[in-house]
Each structure stands twice: as C-alpha cells, then as structure tokens.
Write a structure and sequence with these properties.
The first copy, chain A, is α/β, with parallel strands linked by helices. In chain A, 37% of the residues lie in helices and 17% in strands. In chain A, β11 and β12 form a beta hairpin. Chain A starts with 5 loop residues before the first strand and ends with a strand. The model of chain A has no long low-confidence stretch (mean pLDDT 97). β3 of chain A pairs antiparallel with β3 of chain B.
C-alpha cells in the first residue's frame, strides 16, 4: 500500500515521426515534450517546483552513443541540479520511470517529479536499428541466433493461429482500427487511414486496390517475418513524452482535475521465448494486470479504455486477452466485430497505438499515459471516449521479459 | 522526509578482477554476488521474501550487446516474476539503484528489495572499451572531439595543481594508500602494495626501483593523459555487487544488526567540463553532500569513514574537499600526511577504492555500500575502522554530471 496518493498534473509529447525531427537530437526532443508538459499544467508551475527527474532513453548508446543521459536532460531542461536518473526496461522503460516517480513521491522524499522518455531512432539504418533493438532480447540464446523482435512476435502469432484456428485476417482488424484512431491524433506518426495510404501508393505506382484487404494482401505490404507483414509492425519513429507527477496534496495547488495513479503492476517474465510453455499469452502481462487490478481494487470489466502494447498486431490481440478484456481466443474476433473501437465495448488504443501513433521505444510508456491524461480530462477531441473514468496502460518490454500495467482514474 | 526507515540487511559481491571471471557473463557474475548477499543475511531469508529488483549494468549494450538486463537477472536469480528495473547514471548507477530501492520501500509498496550492479567489461579491447565509456560524456560536445574520461580528470588535476600550487606527487599518496588498503581486501582487484607490484615488474624486466616513488616516476608507469600516469587510473575490472534493503520493521525479522540508510543526496551537474566555472571541485558532489548531511542531520565532521569516487587519483583529493572533510587545497596534503589512512583522522577508501579494488562501472556504487556494511558491522577484518558508527559513500557519474552521496549508520 502506498503511503501517499500520487497524481498526474501535466503531460506533454512531441509528435512521433520518422523524418520530422531529422535535425533534432534526443535532448532537443525531450525539451519539446517537457515544455508542452509544463504548459499543460492548469495553474502556473515553475522549474523550481520540480524535485527530481526519472527518464528513459532505451537504446541511446546505439542511436547517439550517449548514455548518462538523465543528467544531460536535467541540464537541457534547466532543472539542474535536481537528481536525474535513467530507467530502462526495454520498450516498457518510461512506464518503469513513471512507477519509480510514484514511489519517490509516495515515499515522502519529493513532492513533484518529472518522468518521461525519449528515443532518437532514425540516426541508424534499418538493419543497424534492428540489431540495436535485438539487445533487448536474450543475447546468447536469441539475439546471437539472428532472431529479431518481428521474428519473435511472428512465432507468437503462428502459435495463436494454430491454437485458436484463426488466421492473419484477424490481425488486419488491429492495424485498420489503429490507423483510424491515429488519423484523429495530431501527435501520431501516421495520421491516415490505411485506405488513404493505399490510395497514395497506388497513384504513385499505378496500382489499384479496391479495399483495405486488397492492399494489405498485396506485395505492396510485404512480409517482414511470416505471417507478419509491414502493416503488422509498428514503425521506427523519433519522439519524446513527459509526465509531471505530484503528491495528491501538492496536485491540488496546480490543477482542479488531477488524474490519479490507482494501480501499479510490474512483473518480470522469462526473456527467451523457449522458456515459455505457451506462446499465445505473455505470462508477465497476466500477472502485471492482476497486480494492478488488485491494487486499484477493480476488475478488468471496470476499465473504460486502454492503451495496450501493440508493437506488432498479434500483441494487441494477446494483450486484450491477457488483461481479461476478452476470453482466450476471442481477442481477434472482438476486434473484427468492432468491439475495441473508440466507444465500442472496450476502447483500445484510442491514440492509434504503437502501430500507427509510432513507437520511439523509451517514449512509448509515458506517451500511453499522455493519452490516458487527455481522455480522463475530456481533452481527446474526436478520439474522446464517452464518460471515461478509468483508463489503463499496458507496456511490454521486448517479447515479454517485462510487463507493466498502470491504472489511472479521474 | 521518508515515510519509513530503510535498512541494509545483506550484502554480497564478487571479487573484482580483469581475468578471473573470463568465462562468466554478467548474469553469472550477478548471481554470484546475489548468493553471497542471501548468505550474509543473519537469519534465514528466502527468494519469496524479495519483492523487487533494481539493478544496474551501465554499458552492457557495448560489452555484451545486452540491454533489458533487469528481467534477465530476475530470471537467473530465480526471483522471476518480481518487478525488475535497470537503473543508469554512468559510474554512479548502482548507488542510484540503491536510492530507488529505498524510495520503493519507504513508499510502502515493498518490504524487501534487492539492488545492485554488474559489469562485464573485459569482453572489449581497451580502445573499444574506452570509446564505450565515453558514451557517459556529452557526445556532441566532448566525446566527438576525442576527449576521454582520463583526459577530463587530467584537466581537473592540472587545474588543481595550478590553483593550489601542488603537483603530481600529491596524487601518489592516493594510489599508495589505496593499494595498501586493497592488499587487505579479499574482494579487491589488486591485493598488493604498489611496492610489491614494482618488485614483481622489476624482476621480470631486470629493473630496480629503490622505493615506490622511484617506480611511479619511471616509464614503467607511463602517462595515460598528462599528468595522470597508469597508477593514477582505476583498472578495468569485471564484477558484481548486491545489497538487500528492508523496511526497518521487516529488517528486525532478519538481523539484529541492521545498517540504516540515514542520508540521501543525489544531484545532477553540467555534463561538459566547459560548462563549469572551476575544475578544482565537482559542484554536484558538494550539493549531494550537503543534501545527504541535511537529511541525516549531521555534519561532515561526524563521518567516521568514507568510500569516495577515486576513478582517478585527483578525484579522491577533490572529493575529500567537496565533502567538507578537508579545506580547499588541502586534500592532497592531508593524504600525504596519512590523515586519510585507516584509523587516521578520516578513513578514506578503506576497501582500496576504485583505484585498487577495481571499478566494474555499475558494480561500484553498491560495492561501496558493501564495504560500509562490513565496516559498520565490525566485519572488515584488518581494514576495520575503530568504533565505526557513521559511514558515507560518494559515487560520481563520469566527470560529475551525476553525484550521489549516501550516509549509513548502525
């Protein structure tokens, strides 16, 4: 039980994009997210109010030959000499940073803490980038054999198809929905429906696609790792996100509509896929979900909307089952039936998800919280979930070595 | 003010060494430290008692192409599925992990937390290793110009000599003392007095050195970055360290002699040296010390012994001044006069320091706490400080972008 309640009092993020931030380094990207975060606080807040920084940059060693980045960001944001620490848990890094920010405040040590993540990925070519991200897998047992992140999720997809007699077509419902949601999100990497992208490509190449499936099944959507095609994979994006946390006592000074952190679940799983009995579920996600529900004293049915970790389309289906939103084997069917659309039975990835919003690794976790912040304050514009009261984020490290679930309510 | 008091209830570390651990990976090294840590707990403790893991491996991306190492270590220690998070702050990484472990317990979230660090450095050749560690500097402003860690500390040494009219001879008092202390430490990388090493080398090469200074001034002790010679630099070592933290309530269940964390100071400084007005002090250290003293409600004079960050010999002199142990410009003189020897006026680096105990980057912080644990429990054997009641650790990230000071008492 936490000794003190902790709230979000501000949130900011850059747009996620592959070329827009070409000339910006990760420090410049983070400053941009930080400034929006400061601006988002309802009442005036100053640098002096911020006590500490917990920040993620998952693979900045590879992307910018830069470690020790926390103190650098403390300096660039003008927050120096506050304590600044970098947090890493692969793709779940900045959710881990948020969790630690909560601990630091609940402990009584600090009143206001800045957390967030930044990743400048496009400094590397795709092959080098893929190899860099393979460092998040078990090096001697997976990475060294040439298996990459798409390969691992492809194995999960195949296991799922086999067990539940389903097929790749189910996956397309995820990418189509997430592109639709992202088309309404000004921060998203791709702000287009898949059909709009298909039309653009067909004009360029003199092709013709009658509908989305036509396009998704064509060689224009090539295989990355069978059965995953290009549009089953989240893109490579640059971006940053930032969240300001405060003790509930301090929060009232800065906003009349704080968003409270009510549930924290964080677990480690086996890193290698070969150590798991079943590939159709991520055990760490199930356990993290259970812990978060227990702490928040709610059940999965109480969740109004969720950002789940759809690094690859099968991951969203598995996540919605692992979190108890749908029975085993029915996550894909639920998506096809539109039950995961905004204001469907359970609104999933209202921001476009990793698939269409983008996935600058370390920025992803707190970008999920950013969307929860927007939704719970009724500021999500066309993406708004009606009567949003309880939101959840689910952030997975690599192929499930880490899973973090966090629950927020207004 | 922390809501709960937190104590150390166990500590373990591998020997630090450059060749002894040749066939071990970082996961195997950490398991070794963890097992000693479990064994060190006075009363029986089981894996099930441990709630979370905060672990550092500063540059494992470069050394083993391995990030996301926290969940891997959770698995290899048998602690899976507990939450496992990696913490990074360059050379101060595992002290930052310990601090976060304290927050996590004081927050009420967990009762018992494992913290620690591991670094397997010897996978790289020296030139690659040097470049890897340069990632802890400001990449576009320092690293890219070819400046390395020894170079930065060499600049600090020169500034110090200039300002206080002192010279390289003062530095030798640090390496001589720390090698002496390490000669009594079974965990140290070098367990030899400098004169013993000199004799060994002279026999091999047919040389003759009449005393330590003779050797230290000879070409056998070559310049690394003027004025720093080889014996002014900490070595490249593999190693791991681990500390078990518990709430004061739980601590009593496992030991009658817990060691309490009473002061935490952690600050960020400018990363680049060119952003500092004066190179004869590390501002982040001064501020971290002040914060730790304030929290512990003591002054520098109350400290019985300290592990300070002597990655290079001038760093120890500057640290003893930054922490208020000696007036400005007198740290070197104090060392020459023997006032920093074990049971001198202020016992500094009783374990041999980074210089002679070794400096496997991420393992260093919690290895400092390991020595404090031994000292405060009266288990430091020949290195024992008489009536040791209050111990301090001072851990710097790279050239001072981060400084962490922690105070412990029995």
């Amino acid at each position: 039980m936490l000794m003190n309640k902790v709230a979000l009092i501000g949130a900011g993020m850059t747009r996620f994009h592959h070329s827009l931030h070409k000339d910006k380094s990760s420090r410049e990207l983070f400053v941009e997210a930080f400034l929006e975060c400061l601006d988002s606080v309802d009442k005036s807040i100053s640098h002096k109010d911020i006590d500490a920084l917990f920040i993620s940059a998952t693979a900045s060693e590879f992307f910018e030959h830069q470690s020790h980045i926390a103190c650098l960001l403390s300096d660039w944001t003008g927050l120096n000499p506050i304590p600044a620490t970098r947090i890493e848990a692969a793709c779940a890094s900045s959710s881990a940073a948020l969790e630690i920010g909560v601990f630091a405040i609940a402990s009584g040590m600090y009143d206001i803490v800045l957390v967030g993540g930044v990743e400048k990925m496009t400094t590397l070519e795709v092959d080098e980038m893929t190899y860099a991200l393979m460092s998040g897998l078990d090096h001697p047992y997976e990475c060294i054999l040439g298996v990459s992140n798409p390969g691992l999720y492809a194995m999960m997809a195949n296991a799922y198809f086999e067990k539940y007699d389903s097929s790749w077509e189910e996956l397309t419902s995820i990418s189509i929905k997430n592109h639709h949601n992202a088309s309404m999100n000004p921060k998203a990497h791709f702000q287009s429906e898949i059909m709009d992208i298909a039309k653009k490509i067909s004009q360029k190449k003199g092709l013709k696609f009658d509908n989305e499936m036509d396009f998704l099944k064509s060689p224009t959507n090539p295989y990355i790792a069978h059965p995953l095609r290009l549009f089953d994979c989240s893109p490579v994006s640059d971006g940053a996100s930032a969240i300001l946390l405060a003790s509930s006592k301090k929060a009232k000074k800065f906003t009349d509509t704080p968003v409270y952190v009510t549930g924290l679940g964080h677990t480690s799983g086996t890193m290698s896929l070969h150590d798991r009995r079943d590939l159709t579920s991520i055990p760490a996600s199930v356990e993290a979900g259970n812990r978060a529900y227990k702490m928040a004293k709610i059940e999965s049915k109480d969740i109004d909307f969720a950002m789940v970790h759809d690094c690859f389309t099968p991951a969203e289906i598995i996540a919605t089952e692992d979190l108890g939103f749908f029975p085993r084997g029915e996550g894909g069917k639920a998506a096809i039936e539109g039950r995961t659309r905004i204001n469907g039975e359970k609104s999933i990835n209202t921001d476009g998800g990793l698939k269409a919003k983008g996935h600058p690794i370390a920025a992803t976790g707190t970008a999920m919280s950013y969307e929860v912040w927007k939704q719970l304050r009724g500021e999500a514009d066309k993406r708004q979930v009606n009567n949003a009261e309880i939101g959840l984020i689910h952030n997975v490290g690599a192929s499930g070595g880490t899973a973090i679930v966090q629950i927020f309510r207004r």
